[in-house]
Automatic annotation (TrEMBL):
Tree of life domain: Bacteria
Keywords carried by this UniProt record: Membrane, Transmembrane, Transmembrane helix
The keyword Transmembrane is annotated on this UniProt entry: yes
CDD domains found in the cross-reference section: PAP2_like_2 (cd03392)
Record keyword Membrane present: yes
Origin species: Streptomyces abyssalis
The protein's name in its UniProt record: Phosphoesterase PA-phosphatase
A Pfam family that the UniProt record links to this protein: PAP2
Length: 355
């Protein structure tokens, strides 16, 4: 099947709005948000005071998992891409863009954009503020490596995997799809976080804080739903104005049907008197017909072509064939030859003329 035919068929299908209500900040969601926020703060404080969590970071780093299991190193180098913001954002945005087109709503794309914006602001601010160095650049054993100009705490790959793949579950329209997508998002989030520890690019505490940061974004999205709805209304209104306005600022009026198409859509009026046909013309077309050679005065309101009134003379009813008077043949008039002479040839013989 050709692509243009497929797109034309999809365009003809009815609108499919989402049948799921917009999530709200329920009591359970607020409880989870508060618990995750407390866990976030505990992790940051533990790294600041060099608690047992920092000791665990060094133990895993010195264990060097990438040297213990080198056979999976190549595969995990590709798998960790599922946590990079660029490729995953493009992939998920393509899917949500198709959903927005099918459902005639911009909410999926706006939710994704809001979540990624919040993720960049919150995670980026903590990274720059704490400035932690990664395992490959650590200088002092047992140190938290904070305020040293780094930018790995929390793990951006892990937080991005939680948010990007979790958005699919957040926007799911059925309970079954929500459960399946939640499992998929959890698998990618846990897998990407563990892979960064295996490759030695992040500490264990970086991954834990990345999970908490991404989960906070997903749990707090219902607070942004009113803003998302307001932005969607504004964009839709702007798009409608652009569609109905010409480049010069004038509003475009839909083109009327052609006379041929309009006449084909009207019922047959054969056999109706001229006066009744004129009345139908005035009622159906909005035009004024001339009856018996008289035309009403033109309207004084309005200017231009749209305000002009068209005058059509009343149609004459043609008689039927049976009602027509018979026509008898008339004798030829003028220098034509008689009917009896038509058998004679008009041209001379081709031979030589006689003397």
């Amino acid at each position: 099947m050709r692509t243009d035919r497929l797109l034309a068929r999809l365009e003809q299908e009815p609108e499919r709005p989402s049948n799921r209500d917009v999530p709200r900040m329920s009591r359970t969601r607020k409880l989870l948000f508060g618990t995750t926020s407390a866990l976030y703060a505990v992790i940051v404080v533990a790294v600041l005071i060099r608690a047992d969590l920092v000791r665990l970071d060094w133990q895993v780093m010195l264990f060097r998992p990438y040297k213990q299991w080198p056979e999976v190193h190549e595969f995990l180098d590709y798998f960790v891409v599922l946590g990079q913001r660029g490729p995953t954002a493009v992939l998920v945005a393509a899917w949500l863009g198709w959903r927005s087109w099918r459902q005639r709503t911009l909410r999926p794309l706006l939710v994704l954009g809001t979540a990624l914006l919040a993720l960049n602001v919150t995670v980026g601010a903590v990274k720059i503020g704490l400035g932690r160095l990664g395992p490959h650049y650590a200088t002092t054993v047992g140190s938290g490596e904070l305020f040293a100009g780094g930018d790995i705490f929390p793990s951006g790959h892990t937080a991005n995997a939680v948010v990007t793949w979790g958005i699919l579950a957040y926007l799911a329209t059925t309970p079954r799809a929500r459960r399946v997508l939640s499992v998929v998002a959890a698998f990618f989030a846990l897998g990407v976080g563990a892979t960064t520890v295996y490759l030695g690019t992040h500490w264990v505490s970086d991954v834990l804080l990345g999970w908490a940061a991404g989960l906070l974004i997903l749990l707090g999205l219902p607070w942004a739903e009113p803003v998302i709805a307001w932005a969607e209304d504004r964009i839709q209104a702007w798009r409608d104005r652009r569609r109905t306005a010409s480049p010069g600022g004038r509003r475009l009026v839909p083109s009327p049907l052609s006379p041929v198409t309009r006449q084909s859509l009207l019922p047959s009026r054969r056999g109706l008197p001229a006066e009744e046909m004129a009345v139908q013309d005035e009622g159906q077309h909005g035009e004024t017909a001339v009856i018996a050679g008289r035309a009403p005065a033109s309207s004084s309101s309005g200017t231009g072509i749209g305000a002009a009134r068209l005058y059509h003379p009343a149609g004459r009813q043609h008689p039927l064939r049976a009602e027509r008077a018979p026509v008898s043949p008339q004798p030829p008039v003028g220098p034509r030859r008689q009917y009896s002479d038509r058998s004679l040839p008009r041209t001379a013989h081709l031979g030589p003329r006689g003397r």
